[in-house]
Design brief:
This protein is of the alpha+beta class. Among the domains are: 2-62, no CATH class; 142-228, Immunoglobulin-like (Sandwich). Helices cover 26% and strands 29% of the residues. It has four helices and 13 strands. It has a three-stranded antiparallel beta sheet with strand order 1-2-5, with no helix packed on it. A three-stranded antiparallel beta sheet has the order 6-7-12, with no helix packed on it. A hairpin with a 7-residue loop joins strand 6 and strand 7. The protein is rod-shaped, with a radius of gyration of 43 Å. This is Zinc finger-domain-containing protein.
């Protein structure tokens, strides 16, 4: 009799007694699929032989040669499909892994940029690494912004120096005295003085305005600079 694998349609000539001994359970040698042969499917009588082997019977469902090439056997098609699925699964896993690595790299780079001041404050040697890539870091975490000089309306000849001190970090920062410096065209210091802030510290991203009056500006003044005075 002849049985056909329901998975890959490979046909086998089998001994009915061997099927009976196995209680109808059979397994395809081509694709490994196991199934229970239906008794009605075993009614096709053929000369029985005691060995299990593929039956080379031509049928409409059998693969046919195309373009002069040998037809692909059903079990080979099954194996190729399984290998293709394994390759796609492996590529999907690898792609997901690289995506995670890339995402982690982006997050680390973003954190290194956003918290660069805190990183340099904790690890001072990293300042040179930031400078090497063109990103100098201010370890104080404080910046002077919106600096402007205007003539005083109340005192003739006097200058008013105003600006804002900003905490650029994500945590509280102790404030420092400011040092105002006026230089001449040759870069020589003509006059300098200390400007104190009202607050002892600034909260994260906080700011404080300052104002100072220079009653007697020096002759030949060319540039004003406001710096943070060194601690101590």
């Amino acid at each position: 009799m002849i049985v056909t694998c329901p998975s890959c349609e490979t046909r086998y000539r089998v001994d009915p007694e061997a099927i009976a001994l196995r209680k109808g359970r059979v397994r395809c040698a081509a694709c490994g699929h196991g199934w229970k042969a239906d008794e009605e499917a075993l009614t096709l009588e053929e000369p029985a032989k005691p060995t299990l082997r593929k039956e080379a019977v031509a049928s409409d469902a059998a693969p046919r040669p195309v373009g002069g090439m040998e037809a692909v056997k059903p079990h080979e098609v099954v194996r190729k499909r399984a290998e293709t699925r394994r390759q796609r699964s492996r590529q999907t896993v690898e792609g997901a892994g690289w995506a995670v690595v890339a995402a982690c790299g982006v997050l680390l780079m973003g954190a290194a940029w956003l918290f660069r001041v805190d990183i340099v404050d904790t690890f001072p040697r990293t300042a040179s690494a930031y400078a090497a890539i063109g990103v100098p870091v201010n370890p104080l975490g404080l910046e002077v912004r919106n600096l402007r000089v205007t003539p005083s309306e109340d005192e003739e000849g006097a200058l008013i120096i105003e600006g804002v001190v900003v905490n650029t970090t994500g945590r509280d920062r102790a404030t420092l005295p400011l040092r105002a410096v006026i230089t001449g065209e040759d870069g020589a210091v003509l006059v300098e003085w200390v400007v104190m802030l009202d607050s002892l510290s600034l909260p994260a991203r906080g700011e404080e305005s300052f104002r100072s009056v220079l009653s007697d500006p020096p002759a030949g003044a060319a540039e004003l600079e406001v710096l943070f005075a060194p601690e101590g």
